[in-house]
Write a structure and sequence with these properties.
The chain is an alpha+beta fold. The chain is built from eleven helices and 17 strands. The structure holds adenosine-5'-diphosphate and magnesium ion. The site of magnesium ion has 2 residues, from loops.
Length: about 450
Protein backbone atom coordinates (compact mmCIF):
# COMPACT_ATOMS: atom_id res chain seq x y z
CA UNK A 1 0.00 0.00 0.00
CA UNK A 2 1.32 3.46 -0.86
CA UNK A 3 1.68 6.25 1.68
CA UNK A 4 -1.38 8.08 0.39
CA UNK A 5 -3.52 4.93 0.59
CA UNK A 6 -2.45 4.54 4.21
CA UNK A 7 -3.25 8.15 5.03
CA UNK A 8 -6.66 7.92 3.34
CA UNK A 9 -7.51 4.71 5.16
CA UNK A 10 -6.99 6.49 8.47
CA UNK A 11 -8.78 9.66 7.46
CA UNK A 12 -11.86 8.30 5.70
CA UNK A 13 -13.85 6.84 8.63
CA UNK A 14 -13.85 10.23 10.40
CA UNK A 15 -15.62 11.98 7.52
CA UNK A 16 -19.28 12.87 8.01
CA UNK A 17 -20.21 11.59 4.55
CA UNK A 18 -18.43 8.25 4.90
CA UNK A 19 -21.18 5.63 4.60
CA UNK A 20 -19.55 2.67 6.31
CA UNK A 21 -19.99 4.08 9.82
CA UNK A 22 -18.84 1.87 12.61
CA UNK A 23 -17.02 -0.50 10.27
CA UNK A 24 -13.26 -0.56 9.88
CA UNK A 25 -11.84 0.24 6.46
CA UNK A 26 -9.80 -2.73 5.42
CA UNK A 27 -8.21 -1.24 2.31
CA UNK A 28 -8.35 1.72 -0.03
CA UNK A 29 -7.05 1.95 -3.56
CA UNK A 30 -6.88 4.99 -5.83
CA UNK A 31 -8.88 3.65 -8.79
CA UNK A 32 -8.54 6.77 -10.89
CA UNK A 33 -6.70 10.03 -10.53
CA UNK A 34 -6.73 12.92 -12.93
CA UNK A 35 -5.01 16.24 -12.56
CA UNK A 36 -7.41 19.18 -12.97
CA UNK A 37 -6.10 22.24 -14.79
CA UNK A 38 -6.82 24.89 -12.14
CA UNK A 39 -4.87 27.57 -10.28
CA UNK A 40 -2.82 30.23 -11.97
CA UNK A 41 0.60 30.08 -10.39
CA UNK A 42 0.66 26.31 -10.56
CA UNK A 43 1.31 26.02 -6.83
CA UNK A 44 -1.84 23.94 -6.45
CA UNK A 45 -1.78 20.38 -7.67
CA UNK A 46 -5.45 19.36 -7.71
CA UNK A 47 -6.41 15.78 -8.46
CA UNK A 48 -9.84 14.39 -9.08
CA UNK A 49 -9.71 11.05 -7.32
CA UNK A 50 -11.93 7.99 -7.28
CA UNK A 51 -11.20 5.80 -4.34
CA UNK A 52 -12.14 2.16 -4.12
CA UNK A 53 -12.84 1.38 -0.48
CA UNK A 54 -13.22 -2.10 0.96
CA UNK A 55 -14.62 -2.43 4.46
CA UNK A 56 -13.99 -5.14 7.02
CA UNK A 57 -16.92 -7.20 5.64
CA UNK A 58 -15.44 -7.11 2.15
CA UNK A 59 -18.06 -4.67 0.80
CA UNK A 60 -16.61 -2.40 -1.85
CA UNK A 61 -17.68 1.20 -2.55
CA UNK A 62 -16.37 4.01 -4.71
CA UNK A 63 -15.87 7.45 -3.18
CA UNK A 64 -15.05 10.68 -4.93
CA UNK A 65 -12.39 13.01 -3.57
CA UNK A 66 -10.89 16.26 -4.68
CA UNK A 67 -7.37 16.00 -3.33
CA UNK A 68 -5.08 18.99 -3.17
CA UNK A 69 -1.30 18.60 -2.95
CA UNK A 70 0.76 21.53 -1.72
CA UNK A 71 4.46 21.71 -0.84
CA UNK A 72 5.26 21.95 2.85
CA UNK A 73 2.80 22.88 5.59
CA UNK A 74 -0.78 23.93 4.86
CA UNK A 75 -2.13 27.39 5.55
CA UNK A 76 -4.35 27.40 8.64
CA UNK A 77 -7.63 27.71 6.75
CA UNK A 78 -6.91 24.54 4.77
CA UNK A 79 -5.80 22.50 7.76
CA UNK A 80 -9.24 21.08 8.65
CA UNK A 81 -9.06 19.14 5.38
CA UNK A 82 -5.60 17.65 5.99
CA UNK A 83 -5.39 13.97 5.04
CA UNK A 84 -1.66 13.51 5.61
CA UNK A 85 1.88 14.29 4.51
CA UNK A 86 3.19 12.41 1.51
CA UNK A 87 6.77 12.89 0.24
CA UNK A 88 7.07 16.43 1.56
CA UNK A 89 3.62 17.51 0.27
CA UNK A 90 0.54 18.14 2.36
CA UNK A 91 -2.41 16.25 0.93
CA UNK A 92 -5.84 17.64 1.81
CA UNK A 93 -9.53 17.55 0.95
CA UNK A 94 -9.62 20.50 -1.43
CA UNK A 95 -13.34 21.30 -1.09
CA UNK A 96 -12.12 23.66 1.66
CA UNK A 97 -9.77 25.42 -0.75
CA UNK A 98 -11.35 28.44 -2.50
CA UNK A 99 -8.82 28.24 -5.35
CA UNK A 100 -9.69 24.62 -5.99
CA UNK A 101 -13.46 25.00 -6.00
CA UNK A 102 -13.37 28.21 -8.01
CA UNK A 103 -11.28 26.17 -10.45
CA UNK A 104 -14.14 23.66 -10.67
CA UNK A 105 -16.62 26.44 -11.40
CA UNK A 106 -14.32 27.70 -14.16
CA UNK A 107 -14.10 24.22 -15.68
CA UNK A 108 -17.91 24.05 -15.60
CA UNK A 109 -18.21 27.48 -17.22
CA UNK A 110 -15.77 26.37 -19.96
CA UNK A 111 -17.56 23.04 -20.55
CA UNK A 112 -14.16 21.36 -20.34
CA UNK A 113 -13.69 17.71 -21.21
CA UNK A 114 -10.66 16.02 -19.69
CA UNK A 115 -9.63 12.45 -20.32
CA UNK A 116 -12.05 10.78 -17.87
CA UNK A 117 -14.02 13.69 -16.42
CA UNK A 118 -16.26 16.22 -18.21
CA UNK A 119 -17.67 19.52 -16.93
CA UNK A 120 -20.97 20.75 -18.36
CA UNK A 121 -22.99 23.92 -17.85
CA UNK A 122 -26.28 25.01 -19.40
CA UNK A 123 -25.53 28.74 -19.54
CA UNK A 124 -23.02 31.44 -18.59
CA UNK A 125 -21.65 31.30 -15.03
CA UNK A 126 -20.16 34.04 -12.87
CA UNK A 127 -16.82 32.56 -11.79
CA UNK A 128 -15.91 35.49 -9.52
CA UNK A 129 -18.36 34.57 -6.76
CA UNK A 130 -16.74 33.67 -3.42
CA UNK A 131 -17.13 29.99 -2.47
CA UNK A 132 -17.93 28.51 0.95
CA UNK A 133 -18.47 24.93 2.01
CA UNK A 134 -21.89 24.21 3.49
CA UNK A 135 -21.57 23.35 7.14
CA UNK A 136 -24.67 21.20 7.38
CA UNK A 137 -24.58 17.53 8.18
CA UNK A 138 -24.82 15.94 4.79
CA UNK A 139 -24.27 12.73 2.97
CA UNK A 140 -22.52 14.71 0.24
CA UNK A 141 -20.47 17.89 0.24
CA UNK A 142 -21.84 21.12 -1.18
CA UNK A 143 -20.09 24.38 -2.01
CA UNK A 144 -22.10 27.60 -2.27
CA UNK A 145 -20.85 30.35 -4.63
CA UNK A 146 -22.00 33.80 -3.55
CA UNK A 147 -25.69 33.30 -3.02
CA UNK A 148 -26.16 32.22 -6.61
CA UNK A 149 -25.05 28.62 -7.10
CA UNK A 150 -24.62 25.46 -5.11
CA UNK A 151 -22.31 22.67 -6.30
CA UNK A 152 -23.02 19.28 -4.76
CA UNK A 153 -20.16 16.80 -4.99
CA UNK A 154 -21.51 13.30 -4.64
CA UNK A 155 -19.26 11.46 -2.25
CA UNK A 156 -20.28 7.85 -2.62
CA UNK A 157 -20.45 7.19 -6.31
CA UNK A 158 -22.63 4.56 -7.93
CA UNK A 159 -22.29 3.91 -11.67
CA UNK A 160 -24.79 5.72 -13.86
CA UNK A 161 -26.76 8.96 -13.85
CA UNK A 162 -27.49 10.14 -10.33
CA UNK A 163 -31.27 10.34 -9.81
CA UNK A 164 -30.86 13.78 -8.22
CA UNK A 165 -29.66 15.15 -11.57
CA UNK A 166 -32.03 13.01 -13.64
CA UNK A 167 -35.18 13.95 -11.71
CA UNK A 168 -34.31 17.59 -11.11
CA UNK A 169 -33.65 18.09 -14.82
CA UNK A 170 -36.81 16.24 -15.86
CA UNK A 171 -38.91 18.41 -13.54
CA UNK A 172 -37.19 21.66 -14.51
CA UNK A 173 -37.55 20.85 -18.23
CA UNK A 174 -41.27 20.31 -17.64
CA UNK A 175 -41.52 23.82 -16.15
CA UNK A 176 -41.81 22.76 -12.51
CA UNK A 177 -41.65 25.71 -10.09
CA UNK A 178 -40.80 23.56 -7.12
CA UNK A 179 -37.20 22.68 -7.97
CA UNK A 180 -34.00 24.76 -8.01
CA UNK A 181 -32.87 25.20 -11.61
CA UNK A 182 -30.09 22.79 -12.63
CA UNK A 183 -27.18 24.78 -14.08
CA UNK A 184 -24.60 22.11 -14.82
CA UNK A 185 -23.00 18.86 -13.81
CA UNK A 186 -19.77 16.91 -13.75
CA UNK A 187 -19.70 13.41 -15.18
CA UNK A 188 -16.99 10.82 -15.52
CA UNK A 189 -16.18 7.37 -16.73
CA UNK A 190 -16.52 4.97 -13.82
CA UNK A 191 -15.60 1.45 -14.94
CA UNK A 192 -16.94 2.13 -18.42
CA UNK A 193 -20.23 3.82 -17.37
CA UNK A 194 -20.93 7.54 -17.63
CA UNK A 195 -21.51 8.50 -14.03
CA UNK A 196 -22.71 11.71 -12.38
CA UNK A 197 -20.08 13.13 -10.06
CA UNK A 198 -21.49 16.55 -9.18
CA UNK A 199 -24.49 18.80 -9.80
CA UNK A 200 -24.64 22.60 -10.00
CA UNK A 201 -27.97 24.23 -9.10
CA UNK A 202 -29.37 27.67 -8.46
CA UNK A 203 -28.99 28.50 -4.76
CA UNK A 204 -32.33 29.25 -3.13
CA UNK A 205 -32.10 31.51 -0.13
CA UNK A 206 -34.43 30.74 2.73
CA UNK A 207 -35.12 29.17 6.06
CA UNK A 208 -35.51 25.50 6.69
CA UNK A 209 -39.06 24.45 7.45
CA UNK A 210 -38.09 23.35 10.94
CA UNK A 211 -36.48 26.73 11.63
CA UNK A 212 -39.66 28.66 10.97
CA UNK A 213 -41.61 29.59 14.07
CA UNK A 214 -45.28 30.29 14.65
CA UNK A 215 -48.23 28.33 13.38
CA UNK A 216 -46.88 26.34 10.52
CA UNK A 217 -50.11 24.72 9.34
CA UNK A 218 -50.72 27.04 6.38
CA UNK A 219 -47.16 26.36 5.19
CA UNK A 220 -47.71 22.64 5.64
CA UNK A 221 -50.76 22.81 3.48
CA UNK A 222 -48.80 24.58 0.74
CA UNK A 223 -46.03 22.02 1.09
CA UNK A 224 -48.58 19.24 0.68
CA UNK A 225 -49.86 20.94 -2.46
CA UNK A 226 -46.34 21.40 -3.87
CA UNK A 227 -45.63 17.73 -3.18
CA UNK A 228 -48.78 16.63 -5.01
CA UNK A 229 -47.86 18.85 -7.98
CA UNK A 230 -44.36 17.39 -8.16
CA UNK A 231 -45.72 13.86 -7.92
CA UNK A 232 -48.23 14.51 -10.70
CA UNK A 233 -45.50 15.95 -12.94
CA UNK A 234 -43.10 13.10 -12.20
CA UNK A 235 -45.78 10.58 -13.15
CA UNK A 236 -46.24 12.49 -16.39
CA UNK A 237 -42.64 12.97 -17.52
CA UNK A 238 -41.00 9.81 -16.14
CA UNK A 239 -42.27 6.21 -16.16
CA UNK A 240 -45.31 5.29 -14.05
CA UNK A 241 -47.71 2.38 -13.81
CA UNK A 242 -49.97 0.29 -11.64
CA UNK A 243 -48.87 -2.38 -9.21
CA UNK A 244 -51.00 -5.48 -8.67
CA UNK A 245 -51.14 -8.16 -5.95
CA UNK A 246 -47.74 -9.63 -6.93
CA UNK A 247 -46.07 -6.30 -6.41
CA UNK A 248 -47.90 -5.78 -3.12
CA UNK A 249 -46.42 -9.07 -1.98
CA UNK A 250 -42.99 -8.04 -3.20
CA UNK A 251 -43.32 -4.72 -1.37
CA UNK A 252 -44.29 -6.53 1.81
CA UNK A 253 -41.30 -8.88 1.45
CA UNK A 254 -39.00 -5.90 1.04
CA UNK A 255 -40.45 -4.23 4.14
CA UNK A 256 -39.99 -7.44 6.14
CA UNK A 257 -36.41 -7.85 4.94
CA UNK A 258 -35.58 -4.33 6.01
CA UNK A 259 -37.21 -4.95 9.36
CA UNK A 260 -35.24 -8.17 9.84
CA UNK A 261 -31.95 -6.47 9.01
CA UNK A 262 -32.79 -3.56 11.31
CA UNK A 263 -33.61 -5.76 14.29
CA UNK A 264 -30.32 -7.60 13.86
CA UNK A 265 -28.53 -4.28 14.13
CA UNK A 266 -30.69 -2.74 16.88
CA UNK A 267 -32.03 -5.15 19.51
CA UNK A 268 -34.27 -2.41 20.98
CA UNK A 269 -36.60 -3.04 18.03
CA UNK A 270 -37.26 -6.65 19.00
CA UNK A 271 -40.36 -6.06 21.21
CA UNK A 272 -42.18 -4.43 18.25
CA UNK A 273 -41.24 -6.84 15.50
CA UNK A 274 -44.32 -9.06 15.59
CA UNK A 275 -46.74 -6.17 15.52
CA UNK A 276 -44.89 -4.46 12.65
CA UNK A 277 -44.82 -7.73 10.71
CA UNK A 278 -48.59 -8.03 11.16
CA UNK A 279 -49.04 -4.67 9.41
CA UNK A 280 -46.74 -5.76 6.56
CA UNK A 281 -48.71 -9.03 6.26
CA UNK A 282 -51.82 -6.96 5.54
CA UNK A 283 -49.92 -5.18 2.76
CA UNK A 284 -49.06 -8.59 1.27
CA UNK A 285 -52.74 -9.52 1.21
CA UNK A 286 -53.76 -6.39 -0.62
CA UNK A 287 -55.39 -7.00 -3.98
CA UNK A 288 -56.43 -3.48 -5.13
CA UNK A 289 -54.15 -1.86 -7.71
CA UNK A 290 -51.61 0.66 -6.38
CA UNK A 291 -50.44 3.53 -8.60
CA UNK A 292 -46.64 3.59 -8.79
CA UNK A 293 -44.16 6.09 -10.23
CA UNK A 294 -40.76 7.73 -9.68
CA UNK A 295 -40.71 9.44 -6.30
CA UNK A 296 -38.38 11.61 -4.23
CA UNK A 297 -37.30 8.66 -2.15
CA UNK A 298 -35.88 10.40 0.94
CA UNK A 299 -38.47 13.04 1.61
CA UNK A 300 -38.43 15.03 4.84
CA UNK A 301 -38.39 18.61 6.10
CA UNK A 302 -34.60 18.85 5.62
CA UNK A 303 -35.09 18.29 1.88
CA UNK A 304 -37.39 21.25 1.24
CA UNK A 305 -36.84 25.00 1.36
CA UNK A 306 -39.41 27.69 1.88
CA UNK A 307 -38.48 30.43 -0.55
CA UNK A 308 -40.02 33.71 -1.63
CA UNK A 309 -41.72 31.95 -4.53
CA UNK A 310 -43.00 28.98 -2.51
CA UNK A 311 -41.70 25.55 -1.61
CA UNK A 312 -38.65 24.12 -3.37
CA UNK A 313 -37.87 20.40 -3.20
CA UNK A 314 -34.22 19.29 -3.07
CA UNK A 315 -32.15 16.15 -3.22
CA UNK A 316 -33.95 13.62 -5.41
CA UNK A 317 -31.18 11.12 -4.81
CA UNK A 318 -33.24 8.75 -2.69
CA UNK A 319 -31.69 7.12 0.36
CA UNK A 320 -28.01 7.24 -0.61
CA UNK A 321 -27.15 3.99 1.16
CA UNK A 322 -29.46 1.93 -1.05
CA UNK A 323 -28.48 0.48 -4.45
CA UNK A 324 -29.30 2.64 -7.46
CA UNK A 325 -31.82 0.16 -8.90
CA UNK A 326 -33.82 0.31 -5.68
CA UNK A 327 -33.69 4.09 -5.61
CA UNK A 328 -35.01 4.50 -9.16
CA UNK A 329 -37.67 1.78 -8.92
CA UNK A 330 -41.30 2.80 -9.40
CA UNK A 331 -43.14 2.97 -6.11
CA UNK A 332 -46.18 4.44 -4.44
CA UNK A 333 -45.89 8.21 -3.90
CA UNK A 334 -47.27 7.49 -0.44
CA UNK A 335 -43.67 6.61 0.45
CA UNK A 336 -42.79 10.28 0.16
CA UNK A 337 -45.92 11.33 2.04
CA UNK A 338 -45.00 8.91 4.83
CA UNK A 339 -41.47 10.36 4.93
CA UNK A 340 -42.76 13.90 5.35
CA UNK A 341 -45.33 12.89 7.96
CA UNK A 342 -42.56 11.17 9.96
CA UNK A 343 -40.59 14.35 9.67
CA UNK A 344 -43.28 16.41 11.39
CA UNK A 345 -43.08 13.98 14.24
CA UNK A 346 -39.34 14.49 14.40
CA UNK A 347 -39.55 18.26 14.23
CA UNK A 348 -41.94 18.21 17.18
CA UNK A 349 -40.19 15.59 19.28
CA UNK A 350 -36.47 16.25 18.86
CA UNK A 351 -36.78 19.32 21.07
CA UNK A 352 -38.26 17.10 23.75
CA UNK A 353 -35.46 14.55 23.33
CA UNK A 354 -33.04 17.34 24.12
CA UNK A 355 -35.09 18.63 27.07
CA UNK A 356 -35.61 15.43 28.98
CA UNK A 357 -34.01 16.98 32.03
CA UNK A 358 -36.82 19.52 32.31
CA UNK A 359 -38.82 17.03 34.36
CA UNK A 360 -42.17 18.36 35.52
CA UNK A 361 -42.97 20.31 32.36
CA UNK A 362 -42.39 17.38 30.06
CA UNK A 363 -45.89 15.82 29.89
CA UNK A 364 -47.33 19.18 28.91
CA UNK A 365 -44.62 19.71 26.30
CA UNK A 366 -45.11 16.22 24.97
CA UNK A 367 -48.82 16.94 24.58
CA UNK A 368 -48.07 20.16 22.72
CA UNK A 369 -45.53 18.43 20.48
CA UNK A 370 -48.02 15.72 19.56
CA UNK A 371 -50.67 18.35 18.89
CA UNK A 372 -48.32 20.35 16.64
CA UNK A 373 -47.34 17.25 14.69
CA UNK A 374 -50.93 16.09 14.23
CA UNK A 375 -52.11 19.52 13.10
CA UNK A 376 -49.33 19.86 10.54
CA UNK A 377 -49.61 16.30 9.31
CA UNK A 378 -53.29 16.91 8.64
CA UNK A 379 -52.64 20.23 6.93
CA UNK A 380 -50.06 18.55 4.69
CA UNK A 381 -52.57 15.86 3.68
CA UNK A 382 -55.26 18.51 3.10
CA UNK A 383 -52.93 20.41 0.76
CA UNK A 384 -51.90 17.20 -0.99
CA UNK A 385 -55.51 16.19 -1.61
CA UNK A 386 -56.64 19.67 -2.67
CA UNK A 387 -53.86 19.99 -5.23
CA UNK A 388 -55.06 16.92 -7.04
CA UNK A 389 -53.24 14.11 -5.29
CA UNK A 390 -55.55 11.53 -3.77
CA UNK A 391 -56.00 12.01 -0.02
CA UNK A 392 -53.22 9.99 1.67
CA UNK A 393 -55.52 9.35 4.66
CA UNK A 394 -57.74 7.28 2.40
CA UNK A 395 -54.93 4.69 2.17
CA UNK A 396 -54.33 4.20 5.92
CA UNK A 397 -52.78 0.74 5.61
CA UNK A 398 -50.09 1.65 3.06
CA UNK A 399 -49.40 4.93 4.78
CA UNK A 400 -48.94 3.23 8.13
CA UNK A 401 -46.73 0.50 6.63
CA UNK A 402 -44.51 3.09 4.93
CA UNK A 403 -44.33 5.22 8.09
CA UNK A 404 -43.31 2.16 10.06
CA UNK A 405 -40.66 1.38 7.44
CA UNK A 406 -39.30 4.94 7.74
CA UNK A 407 -39.30 4.75 11.52
CA UNK A 408 -37.43 1.43 11.37
CA UNK A 409 -34.84 3.06 9.09
CA UNK A 410 -34.57 5.96 11.55
CA UNK A 411 -34.03 3.56 14.43
CA UNK A 412 -30.98 2.12 12.67
CA UNK A 413 -29.75 5.58 11.74
CA UNK A 414 -30.08 6.95 15.28
CA UNK A 415 -28.54 3.87 16.85
CA UNK A 416 -25.49 4.41 14.65
CA UNK A 417 -25.24 8.16 14.64
CA UNK A 418 -27.16 9.74 17.54
CA UNK A 419 -28.10 7.15 20.16
CA UNK A 420 -29.68 9.80 22.40
CA UNK A 421 -32.36 10.35 19.75
CA UNK A 422 -33.26 6.67 19.52
CA UNK A 423 -36.39 7.16 21.67
CA UNK A 424 -37.93 9.35 18.94
CA UNK A 425 -38.40 6.69 16.25
CA UNK A 426 -38.97 3.97 18.84
CA UNK A 427 -41.75 6.07 20.39
CA UNK A 428 -43.24 6.65 16.96
CA UNK A 429 -43.29 2.94 16.20
CA UNK A 430 -45.20 2.39 19.43
CA UNK A 431 -47.61 5.15 18.54
CA UNK A 432 -48.13 3.92 14.98
CA UNK A 433 -48.89 0.45 16.28
CA UNK A 434 -51.24 1.52 19.05
CA UNK A 435 -53.08 4.17 17.09
CA UNK A 436 -53.86 3.01 13.58
CA UNK A 437 -54.77 6.44 12.31
CA UNK A 438 -51.62 8.05 13.70
CA UNK A 439 -53.62 10.88 15.15
CA UNK A 440 -52.39 10.78 18.71
N1 LIG B 1 -30.49 24.73 -4.36
C1 LIG B 1 -30.26 24.96 -3.06
N2 LIG B 1 -30.45 26.19 -2.54
C2 LIG B 1 -30.21 26.44 -1.23
N3 LIG B 1 -29.79 25.51 -0.37
C3 LIG B 1 -29.59 24.28 -0.82
C4 LIG B 1 -29.82 23.93 -2.19
N4 LIG B 1 -29.52 22.63 -2.36
C5 LIG B 1 -29.13 22.18 -1.14
N5 LIG B 1 -29.17 23.16 -0.22
C6 LIG B 1 -28.84 23.04 1.19
O1 LIG B 1 -27.94 21.97 1.37
C7 LIG B 1 -28.51 20.97 2.21
C8 LIG B 1 -28.11 19.61 1.72
O2 LIG B 1 -28.47 19.47 0.37
P1 LIG B 1 -28.91 18.08 -0.22
O3 LIG B 1 -29.14 18.25 -1.67
O4 LIG B 1 -30.05 17.54 0.59
O5 LIG B 1 -27.58 17.23 0.01
P2 LIG B 1 -27.31 15.78 0.61
O6 LIG B 1 -27.42 14.86 -0.54
O7 LIG B 1 -25.94 15.84 1.14
O8 LIG B 1 -28.37 15.52 1.65
C9 LIG B 1 -30.00 21.22 2.14
O9 LIG B 1 -30.65 20.77 3.28
C10 LIG B 1 -30.06 22.73 2.01
O10 LIG B 1 -29.89 23.34 3.26
MG1 LIG C 1 -30.39 15.82 1.68
Amino acid sequence: MSEIDDALREWLPSQRWYGGKGKAVSSVRVAHEERLPVGEAGDLDLRHTLLEVTDADGARETYQLLLGYRDGDLEGRLEPGLVGEVKGSSVYDAVHDPDAVTGLLELLAQNRSLSRVAFRSTGALDTTLPPRVMGAEQSNTSVVFGDAYILKLFRRVQQGTNPDLEVTRALADAGCEHVAAPLGWVEGDVSGTITTLAMLQAFEADLHADEVGGDFAAESERLGAATAEVHALLAQVLPSGTAGPDESQATARQLVERLDRAVEAVPELAPHVDAVRAVYAQVAERTDPVPVQRVHGDYHLGQVLRTQRGWVLLDFEGEPARPLAERTALMSPLRDVAGMLRSYDYAARHLLAERREVGAGVPQLAYRAAEWAARNRDAFCDGYATAGGSDPREEPLLLRAFELDKAVYEVVYEARNRPSWLPIPLGSIERLLSDPKGEQ
